[in-house]
Amino acid sequence: ISNNRLPNGGFGWLVVAGCALSNVFNQSLISIFGLLFGEFLSNELGQGTSGAALVMNLCSVCLNFSGLITGSIIKKLSVRKTAILGSILTGSGLILCSISQSFWQILVFYGVFVGLGFGLINPSSFIAVNSYFTTKKGQAVGLALAGTGLGQMVMPNLVSFLLNEYGFRGTVLIMGGLALNGVVGALLYQPVKWHMKNYKADSTNSIDEAEKASLLSKKKKIIDMIEDSEVAKKSVFKRIARAMDLKLLKSFTFLNIIIGLAFAYSASISFSMLFPYFLQNTAHLSKTDTALCMSILAGADLTSRLILPTITDRFKFSSRSIFLVAAIFLVIARSTLAETRSRLSLLVVSCFYGFVRAATIVNQNLTIAEYCNCEKRQTMLPNALGLNMVAKGFFVITLGQLLGWIRDKTGNYSLCLHAQNILLVIVIVMWTPEILYKKFLVSTLLSQSLVKYFEHVNTVN
């Protein structure tokens, strides 16, 4: 009798390629918003920095709070259809921006359409990649996210060239067309069941296994019938709670994970916004040297996404442990940056920062997937990712504003970098005791099991 198992490669690498293609033309758009829309907003619509910030904040809110519905959409439509819908929303939002005549239209077409598009693409792409791999998940996710890093390196130069050649409207129209390449990438997100590997089971147990499968199938049908009848009697709130897997929020471990990830995400977003200003206003670097620092950081980030997951997968480190160690190194790197003024030193530390930052980016969703890896929680992954997005959205709005307020009140960029580190230190303090306790518990249970085993062997002998 043949059974099925995950490919752990095979067609999964084409899924990774599709995800990388989508990331090149979609996820990288966030980093070029100011370059693409800045002049148009200020010169034609009379909107300064506050207007640009409003569009980006609305986009971020729609991206993260779409997590409330993303899980249900993925379960209803499938991963591939959800990613296609997200790419169409992103592409059409940009295309509509090219014919916009007022600020509210930019708010709707970019803030809402593009934000929702990103919110659908992110989790569906991750689930598509995650579903194909067992021991190579880190490597696969790293390669997929390398598309974002590549886009962040290439897109600024491409956008600058297009703006000079075709102006704002022509450039946004072209970028909208390029974003629709995400549809091509999403078409590769074939269901993993189409590519499951067959292997022969032990023939002596084949009849028992078949009988068990039949009984389990019947049992599942009966349970589903009972549950369906119970659901009909439940309140609307309970139906929503069940559809969104809100029982995940009862788990201390899950809450600890998503709050920690949200703190780290808020610090990362704040750093990305303030780093260029820190280099120019505090370190007094020229625009050329500032761009060089940012390019080196992005290059190190991309290199790390390609190399580091291969190493960590080989040694089978947990995603959460890797994230925690990377967070410790990020604190060191960011503190060093905050107190560094030398051009050469800033280039070196930026390189180190980019390398360790990639470890946190790659392992964000992998940490959630790792928690949902047990059999009873596997179907909860879409909603778990959605709840994580909502948590990130909430903390970005609150903590992000607080970090901005610190900068405005003090005028000190170095102090703001240290404030970002406080968020990471909180994550380290929250996670370390739980991880150590669980490792101690596992080792204790293992030693007890070994003692019982040897006692049993001695009794038999």
Walk me through this protein's architecture.
With 461 residues, this protein is an all-alpha fold. It has 3 domains: 1-200, Growth Hormone, Chain: A (Up-down Bundle), CATH 1.20.1250; 204-243; 250-461, Growth Hormone, Chain: A (Up-down Bundle), CATH 1.20.1250. Helix content is 81%, strand content 2%. The protein is built from 16 helices and 2 strands. The chain has helices at 12-25, 33-44, 49-65, 67-77, 79-97, 103-130, 137-179, 181-186, 206-233, 236-243, 252-282, 287-315, 319-338, 343-371, 381-410, 413-460; strands at residues 2-5, 197-200. A two-stranded antiparallel sheet has the order 1-2. Helix 3 packs parallel to helix 6 (103-130) and helix 15 packs antiparallel against helix 16. The protein is globular, with a radius of gyration of 24 Å. The chain starts with a strand and ends with a helix. The model is unreliable at 201-216 and 218-233 (pLDDT under 50). GO terms for molecular function: monocarboxylic acid transmembrane transporter activity. It comes from Corethrella appendiculata.
In a nutshell, what does this entry contain?
This protein has 461 residues and is an all-alpha fold. It is built from 16 helices and two strands.
Question: Keywords, please?
Answer:
globular, two-stranded antiparallel ribbon, mainly alpha, 16 helices, Putative transmembrane transport, 3 domains, Growth Hormone, Chain: A, 461 residues
